Amino acid sequence: MAVSLLAREVSDLCLGKPALRSLSVSTTVAEALTTLKRLGDGYLSVWCCDHSKNVASGVDNCRCVGKICMVDVICFLCKEENLSSPATALQAPVSVLIPKVPGIIRHLEPNASLLEAIDLILEGAQNLVIPIRTWNGAGSRKKLPRKPSFSSTRHNNREYCWLTQEDIIRYLLNCIGLFSPIPIKPINSLDIVDDQNVCTVHYDEPALSALPLISHSPVNQTSVAVVDVDGKLIGEISPFALNSGDETLVAAIATLSAGELMAYIDCREPEDLVKLVKDRLEERNLVAMLELMEEESAISSSSSMCSSSDDEFGSGKSGRHGGYSARMTRRSEAIVCHPWSSLVAVMVQALAHRVSYVWVVEEDGTLSGIVTFAEMMKVFRERLNPPMIK
User: Fold this and answer.
1) CA-based nearest residue to 129, from 53, 216, 63, 54
2) Chain-centre distance for alpha carbon 49
3) Strand pairing of 233-237 and 224-227?
4) Amino acid 118: pLDDT
């Protein structure tokens, strides 16, 4: 079955993907924060290079050791020891942001098979780093040097791209007919609804109490569900939504409840909640965090005034920090399905909303589990040969 699918190489899924924007592992958190805001990228790769090797050949011995985003910076600054002195925390090396989970970043060559990529993800890899391969005429796959794209960095004399779970699921959806009738079966009949590893926080609980869950959500590629006293799903605190913010969200997480934080994100910092955050920072004597919030607010106001002035002449950039906050954002409303939803329907739903999971709720809205891309991949992998590579 699916001979053409088995023959696919990972390079086929990387066509047209942009080169990674990268940072050195010795970069500071402050520099990483500035780069995230300046480039407008949701994620940056972190590299460790040993320049002492292969000096004669001019090739560095470089490895991607991590993937960071705004959520990582926010969660780091939310730690109790950093809330009182954010300026000092920002001078820490960016390595403190990298999750201490082995194997979540893996390197693969462009000619590796799609099955190898799927097997690595099922073993725990969250992102695969693939060298970008250029083409030299019809039918040729010769690797050629090319001019580095803007703000990307060459390592080992190559540019690289991410291959994500979303990329693979999207590709499998395009081949969905090969797996018939599995895709039309209900997800509860395929044993892919996870009711054990569901991260939840009560609506009225402090958002800070969910910090460990929020910090692990980018690693797990899920979110934190916000539920009421009856276990019904109200919304979520997602990395996608937090990534569209900035370091001022640290103050909100440190002072607001989970429900208030959802409103703070959805309503783009409403005045009443901003005032509440500042009042609570004063009560807790978090002067440095309050000053950081005031400073960012002043920069935002100045940027907005300049942007409005420029827009009159058709040359302005919308949003705070130029393109940074102008990128697509998603509200705290959770994406849900039901136990009887078909696998293909859930795949389409997740891909349409650019998430790697869908919450599973009962008819009355009670949260009963979660379906992730990794679980979906298991269904397809079981129906492909050869067996999993060990």
Assistant:
1) 63
2) 24
3) antiparallel
4) 94
How far apart (Å, rounded) are the C-alpha atoms in residues 389 and 361? 35
Q: Residue 359, class by beta-carbon neighbours within 10 Å (0-12 exposed, 13-18 middle, 19+ buried)?
A: buried
Tokens of 329: 């954002």
Residues 6+ positions from 126 with CB-CB distance below 8 Å: 67, 104, 105, 165, 219, 221
CA distance 302 to 320: 10
pTM of the model: 0.84
Question: Whole-angstrom Cα distance, residue 246 to residue 33?
Answer: 9
Q: Pick from 4, 111, 73: which is nearest to 292 by CA?
A: 73
**E-assigned strands of the chain?**
22-24, 43-50, 61-69, 105-107, 127-131, 160-164, 200-202, 224-227, 233-237, 336-337, 357-361, 367-372
Q: From the first residue on, what is the mean pLDDT of each consecutive set of 10 residues in the chain (390 residues)?
A: 71 91 93 90 87 54 91 96 94 94 92 94 93 63 42 73 95 92 96 95 97 93 96 94 90 96 90 95 94 78 50 40 40 89 98 96 97 96 67
**Rounded to 5°, angle at Cα 345 from 341 and 350:** 110
Between CA 359 and CA 9 the distance in angstroms is 32
Q: Which helix (H) or strand (E) holds 170?
A: helix 165-174
- Give dist(CA 63, CA 131) in Å, integer: 12
- Two tokens at 175? 């081949």
pLDDT at 365: 95
Q: Quick one: pLDDT at residue 320?
A: 39
The β-bridge partners of 371 are: 358
